[in-house]
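Hi team,

As requested, here is the filled-out complex form for the phosphoenolpyruvate run. I kept the field names the same as last time so the parser does not choke. Let me know if anything looks off before we queue the next batch.

— J.
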Amino acid sequence: MVGPANVGGSRILLRKLREIMETGGVAQERLDRLVAMIASTMVADVCSIYLTRGAVHELFATEGLKPEAVHRTRLKHGEGLVGLVAETAQPLNIADAPHHERFSYRPETGEDPYNAFLGVPIVRSERTFGVLVVQNRASRIYGEDEVEALQTIAMVLAEMVASGAFGDLSGLADVEARASRPELLNGRAFSDGLAIGTVVLHEPHAPLGRVIADDPVKEEQRLDAALIQVRTTLQEMLDGDPGRISGVSREVLEMFLMLANDPSWETKLKHGVRAGLSADAAVERIRGEHRAKFNKTRDPYLRERLHDLEDLDNRLLRALAGVDGAPKQEMPADAVLVARELGPAELLDYGAERLKGLALEEGGATAHAAIVARALGIPMVGLLPGLLSRVEAGDAIILDGERGEVRLRPEEAVVSAYQERIQFRTARAAEFARIKDTPAITQDGAQITLLLNAGLALDVHHLDEVGAEGIGLFRTEFQFMVSETLPRLESQTLLYRDVLETADQRPVTFRTLDLGGDKVLPYVTAEREENPALGWRAVRIGLDRPALLRYQLRALISAAAGRRLRVMFPLVTLIAEFDAARALVDRELEWARKHGRELPAQIEVGVMVEAPALAWSIPALKGRADFLSIGTNDLMQYFFAADRGNARVSDRYDILSPPALRLLKQIREDADAANLQISICGEAAGRPLEALAFTALGYRRLSMPASGVGPVKRLVLSLNAREAAEAVSPLLHSDVPSVRAELTSIAAAHAWAL
Ligand code: PEP
Ligand code: MG
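And here is what came back:
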């Protein structure tokens, strides 16, 4: 229940605070009156405000410490108890301050006799820019009510400083209450492209200036209305078809609804409003608490629940702004979405038309949103620590999905440099569009088949856009990764049929589930492995747990009824594994036949060459496999013993090194001798210089991301394959770590377009 004493305390404080602000006067005087008022209302001997100026926390006002210390006492970051509060962004409530290990004695303040210390951070939009402190001579711990009251005041103070209510305060210009300077953040590029736009926050903030309630009764009514709206929407989603509306699964919605109906959540929110906060500010305060707990919690289950709670807080904030569940409606035309983390389904909800770009503070190692961002053609940068504490909604932003950078509030000159880069990209895109229907034939008549790597139904539309001849690698696990629950047989079949129909007559090579390693499913708790890349993954799982693989094969066979079906298995290491996998295909064909289903008109079963052991077994695949495809991403990770997902080593070894090129040459020769069609489908195939080398080694089929088709086509059209082979041959036995430089100058000398 709401404790009347506490509510009363906060409310009195807020009323007095408002009176002080309304009486006007010089900023420093108002601040002085404010600390005096807090000290007297809370019966504290000292009340001080520290604000962060550059590298120090400076005493801006005090009641109880010596007045001459104001603007003179400065604590370095992390120094003293004030530094500790700012660093952790958490309240600190201790009875015996002088004996705390972080206590820093400042003689000029005359603070010798104070034992009890309560400090709370002054935070806004996750940015801590000060600390509000009360102290008492008596050694005691402050009550929960007092902590909460001080936090409420700190929150209001934060808004006032940020909104310029203390405009002429000396030194305030250096206090960064709102992010205002240009900033460059380095993250990781997850989806290619550039965007200049306006920040839209996925997790909104209470509007500036709307923190203290003008009319608490009205605020409570607003809160009630918003709560009803959130609950009703959740209930409606649950009653309808949740998967279709939001991509959120039933269990997740049920959990949300349970939390939304939890009386303690409502009580806490009401508490804030009755204490004098606006409904928005009350929600934001609770959200801050949930987030702080989340950051402290290690337990994965609890973290998930706290994440759900935060999500609910966000829904409520949106409802209060009158746009629940539909952040889309108020989007500027050049919206760049900024969030801590975003699920793939949520990204699909926003849709490509509404977003120019996506920047994520976390965007984890597996970043499933990245898969969707790429399919939608939205540039995306992730792994940007501190992003949310540095942006405000409406800030100008440049998102660089080439370099993995984000620039906030950029200078004019930077904006124009980027405008030029965007123009350059547009011009290149126009050039690629011009050649998209030209057959990829080299100057000396070698025909190169350019194929697309895809993973979602959305990707298949790129076929026409870039002019690829088919899909050389369809990563079926993407469907599993972007959905909240295990896709059923029907939804798998639907997807495969949709893909085949969109591809029309063009061939599609489906790769069976490649899970494990870096590809984890949110709804399957996998056993922790010491070396996941070398662990239980891909076809190994498929053979040990054949039900999943058989269902997938059944879906593929049924989707390809009357058509051509090409299917291949990932990470096969032994011939026996391929035989076993192929036997499953035969079993499923038999099953379909027995059940009177229409069979595919033609079936080709292939294998990915990703394990070095298989690379040395090509001759034995003769007559067993129908085609081969080299996954250079994995093959190189195993060849060089360098984790492809570990930034420290993933770029350490070059596929354009003599040993790697010799291996690729050997595989191609063995495949030719065994009469096996062979392609390369790793990312490298989409880069012109690598494509040049592969063509020189005799490869004629390359499968790549959509963005690679234009550049590689341009190269092919300019290339002489025979001359390329002659130029590359002597490099194969050089002893340099990489022949990249040599190859680049050879290309330049021949005017081959890189
Ligand atoms: C590869 O390993 O090169 C490949 C194409 O497969 P994936 O990147 O999906 O592992
Ligand atoms: Mg692979």
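Two things worth flagging: The pocket of magnesium ion (ligand 2) is lined by residues 570, 610, 631, 633-634 (CB under 6 Å). Residues 183-206+330-420 form a domain with the Glucose Oxidase; domain 1 fold (CATH 3.50.30.10).

Thanks,
J.
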